[in-house]
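Example record

One chain of 332 residues, shown exactly as stored in the release files.
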Amino acid sequence: LLLSSCKTASSASQGPVDGSTTSAARPEAPIERSMGPRTRGVPHSVNIDKVVLSRDGTMAVSRDSLGGIRFWSTLDGTAEPSLVPVRGARDFSIAPSTEGATLAAIDGTGALHILALGLDGSVRELFMSSPHQPMVQAEVLGDGTHLVALASDHRLLLMDNEGKVLQTIQERRFNPSSFRLSGDQQTIYTLSSEPSGLGFEVTIQSLGIVLETKTLTSSKTIGRVDQVADLDAIRLALSPSGDHLAFLGFPKAKEEEEKAVPPAQRRPPAQPSSAQAPVLQIASLEDGEVHSVELQLPTHEFSQAGLGFVSNDLLVVGTRPTGGSWKAVSYT
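Predicted structure tokens for this chain:
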């Protein structure tokens, strides 16, 4: 998937299609693909550093290194992206809607923007929250009419696409720092972490989403992972089924160096040393078993590493997307 230029691949670089095979004895004429007229748009002028796909894989939103946001209404090469008037969004999510798409984007101040994006490049702002009540994450659901948002004060909100809060979850001992949606978008898995000894204890809780009644069910704890003591996590990912948790991090400082620092003050390093090799660990929430994977990837830019589950048994990890390295990791 090439989003930076949106150019049609040359016929020389295209392989067999529709199950056909090549034959040296009976060479075939090159296959010419007609993409039809291309809709003009506003491509990125600098490198893309983040891409988020809709859950059905038909559209995308991208961000460049200068903070510019673009909406890709189709990924078949027939249209260039359109401009989204939100600068430097740090988190965004998109889903198809009757108008085209619904975009939820959180800007650098923590304000949540909900936009209706037309397939013709039109943009209509449906809602913008106050930066005085910052949001940290938002996910658009279903057909683009509802979304789930997490506020910086750990409130979990169910909202419609015009910003109306339908329900708020704020319970005792419920302090999520991020959340993940199940593949069917009927369950929310929240993650919270607290310092614990030389590592962090991660708690996973689940809530149900009932769009028919516009409600969230009460949270329940489904697993805890006391992180292996010799790691400092810089990324966390939860599998779509909610039964595996992945940590990406670097070895901690030696124990004698740690003793001088009170446990409550220990935090992952802001910039890991290039001499440290990154480590991936996958923990089962059912039996607590932890599986370690050595990553043969460059370390000098791993503070911008990416980590995500493609499916319940496949992970993708890597350094920054631009000029970085990526590796698929499967496990059982």
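Notes: The chain has a mean pLDDT of 77.
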